[in-house]
Amino acid sequence: MSAEKQTYTYKQVRKHEIKADVYPAPGEAARPVVVWLHGGCLIMGHRGDITAWQLNLYLEAGYTVVCADYRLAPETKLPAIIDDLQDAFRWVREEGPQLFQADPSRVAAVGHSAGGYLALMSGVVCDPRPTVIVSFYGYGDIVGDWYSRPDPYYLQQPIMPPQRAYRSVGSKVISGTPEPHHRDNFYLYLRQQGLWPLEVSGHDPWTEPGFFQLYCPVRNVTREYPPALLLHGDKDTDVPYEQSALMVAALAKATVEHELVTIPGGEHGFDAGRNEVSEPAMSKVVAFLRQHFG
Fold first, then answer.
1. Does residue 153 sit within a domain?
2. Considering the entire predicted model, what is its pTM?
3. How many CB atoms lie within 10 A of CB 17?
């Protein structure tokens, strides 16, 4: 199944347009909406990164899919990125019914990696909250040692010089980085130096820990948090599996409905290809959405 893509500007900041691609489900009836959030460590990535086979699964299930860009760091800092997240969901609920038959009472947040983080954040900052959240290898704590200290895995790679790293980013506001780009040089540098929280937020986690309280979903789970499905490989070398385990513990403590799908031996991006691991995982995603969309 395929849908004709419609591209909208859901937000404009000064002269910069922030866009969303909408893939409407067939039919005239109001449809539940999957708001899909791309990964890329909040530094890179694009709304067009959704894989075709996963997009088709959502469409075949009867859901309209909205792939939303958001402004990227370091040119834009974390508070403004979260503003974009809130505005994307607000736009879907307020404009979606007229533009693409969206059902504003049934909206899911689905994201991968940094998009998984944003999906988890939507359960904290969006009003109203999403109906349901799905996080693929996301994270609930952005200032743990895994992000705030030099990372052993990334230190195995050749050390990225700061001059080369900073040449791959700039000062102009951007949202969405379709290939080719070299911003992964910047990410490698941040992981090797433990500087990701500082560069993404503009605040130092060691001297300003209080700033990050709002931006760590694991610290803000309440009983009102939406039902959540988390999927994570236990051999993930980018986002530790522990990040989903910690989030699950917080959900359980708050008695929020949740499920953790552990992928034995799964690495970061385990679902990139369609195979005997990713297909059952996606079946669980669609079933979880169906359960909560009704």
1. no
2. 0.97
3. 13
Range of the domain at 275: 6-141+216-293
Count of domains forming the chain: 1
Output the domain CATH number for residue 250.
3.40.50.1820
Burial 260-283 (b: 16+ CB within 10 A, else e): bbebeebebbbbeeeeebbeebbe
CB contact set of 144 (below 8 Å; sequence gap of 6+)? 243
- Dihedral class, residue 265 (left if φ above 0, else alpha if ψ from -120 to 50, else beta): left
Beta strand pairing status for 132-136 and 64-68? unpaired
First to last CA, the chain: 22
Does some domain include residue 146?
Answer: no
Q: Cα-flanking dihedrals φ and ψ of residue 115, to 5°?
A: -65, -35
Cα–Cα distance, 77 to 74 (Å, whole number): 6
Domain assignment present for 203: no
pLDDT band at 230 (very low <50, low <70, confident <90, very high): very high
Q: Looking at the domain assignment, is residue 35 inside a domain? A: yes
Contact 122, 219 (CB under 8 A): no
